[in-house]
Specification:
mainly alpha, Growth Hormone, Chain: A, single chain
């Protein structure tokens, strides 16, 4: 259900919020004015950076206090509130709107740390691929509903009393925040950490200091899990490219293929609907063929799409590219999350998934900033898109060296050894 809840952020971010910045917050002076699009890209990069710094601390504190569900509640509801606040800010407070935009992004990314950590609380080796894929699939279904609602608001807003664009954008962004907050409640109220909580939880400042020490020790001792460390490094690169494509491809669609906001709604809706069975299909294939071969195949498809972006010139080809992207989008994320879970000691689930987020978000600053800088300086979205190919190439090269079976063995053997020493 949390995938269902937070998917509204993903779908409306790249449609409504993307258009909100250059249309109303930083309105274009002319067709070559890319300030709004650049601020959007830099805002996402800033949120990624802050999330990268905070993710390991949040993960370690959540593990130490057995409070993953509490952190999920705090980050999800705070993000939903920041979204509503951003929508209701007067347009002449542009940089306050940007602040809320960044806070919204930070909360979204941080909420995934305890949420992904809870995956290991409710699954085992036989079910982890299926449950991870089902989460993503449900998210794609959930993200489609507010997307259709937003399309209807823009299409028929004047007939229901939303006379101008400002009102239509405001209602859609408020809807994003309410959808995220309300549908987070089942996960917040039902999911609980397994095991007994400490009798006395450390105050947050002390827990944060202890978490920093834990993070430092984990970094020092990461050589105890060399396969996991290599996976995190590979994920750092290919996830940066993947997330940048997902959040910035709308600029390519609008600038190079002249998509209207209505075209963009339909494109994202199509991707959401195809991504649902795609996530389940890739999850099933990873059970049959193994996680690593399926993940490498998905990354090869992502690379091919970026090459195609440099040469295709018509809308039909771009729609076909959207279909192909949808088939591998959720599967790549789902298999990565399941792979990480298989190589993670259960006792340190939230802490290690904090590093999973750190690995994903630390470099994810680079992709949006690189994209935003190239499009701002060159006024060419194709060049910005093709520049992302380097992230996938490096990710594929590193992923090819990973031995998943050995990674699972290291997690089981050395994770148990660490627990025994801790208890001793």
């Amino acid at each position: 259900m949390y995938d269902w809840a937070n998917s509204a952020y993903s779908t409306l971010l790249i449609t409504v919020v993307f258009h909100y910045f250059p249309t109303l917050v930083f309105p274009r002076a002319d067709s070559s004015d890319k300030l709004g699009e650049a601020v959007y890209a830099f805002g996402i990069g800033g949120a990624m950076f802050l999330a990268a710094v905070l993710s390991p601390i949040v993960g370690a504190v959540a593990d130490a206090n057995r409070s993953k569900h509490r952190w999920l509640a705090g980050t999800a509801l705070c993000g939903a509130a920041a979204t509503v606040a951003m929508a209701l800010m007067p347009l002449d407070h542009a940089w306050l709107i940007v602040t809320m935009f960044v806070l919204m992004g930070v909360c979204f990314e941080l909420s995934l740390v305890p949420y992904n950590g809870l995956l290991l609380e409710i699954t085992d080796e036989r079910s982890i691929n299926l449950v991870s894929a089902l989460g993503y699939a449900l998210g794609y279904a959930g993200g489609s509903v507010p997307l259709v609602a937003a399309w209807l608001i823009f299409k028929y807003g004047r007939q229901i009393g939303l006379a101008n664009q400002t009102d239509q954008y405001t209602v859609c962004i408020v809807m994003l925040g309410l959808w995220w907050g309300i549908f987070s409640l089942p996960s917040i109220l039902i999911l609980r950490d397994r095991g007994r909580r400490p009798e006395k939880c450390a105050p947050l400042p002390r827990a944060a200091r202890n978490a920093v020490g834990e993070v430092r020790n984990t970094i020092i001792n990461i050589r105890r899990f060399p396969i996991l460390a290599l996976f995190l490094l590979a994920f750092l690169f290919y996830n940066d490219g993947m997330q940048t494509v997902l959040t910035q491809a709308n600029a390519l669609a609008v600038d190079e293929f002249h998509f209207s906001i209505y075209d963009l709604f339909l494109l994202v809706l199509m991707i959401q609907l195809i991504a649902l069975p795609g996530a389940l299909l890739v999850g099933k294939l990873s059970d049959l063929m193994g996680q690593k071969p399926v993940l490498l195949a998905c990354l090869a498809v992502w690379s091919a799409l970026l090459v195609a972006a440099a040469v295709v010139n018509d809308k039909t080809s771009f729609w076909i590219m959207g279909v192909v992207l949808a088939l591998v989008m959720g599967g790549t994320q789902s298999v990565s999350r399941a792979m990480m879970g298989m190589m993670t000691p259960e006792r340190h689930a939230a802490e290690f998934f904090g590093f999973f987020n750190l690995s994903g978000k630390a470099a994810s600053v680079l992709g949006p900033v690189q994209f935003g800088l190239i499009i701002y300086l060159s006024d060419n979205a194709r060049w910005a898109a093709v520049s992302l190919l380097i992230f996938f190439i490096v990710g594929i090269v590193l992923m090819a060296r990973i031995d998943v079976v050995e990674g699972r063995r290291q997690a089981a053997k050395r994770g148990e050894g660490r627990e025994e020493r801790g208890e001793g």
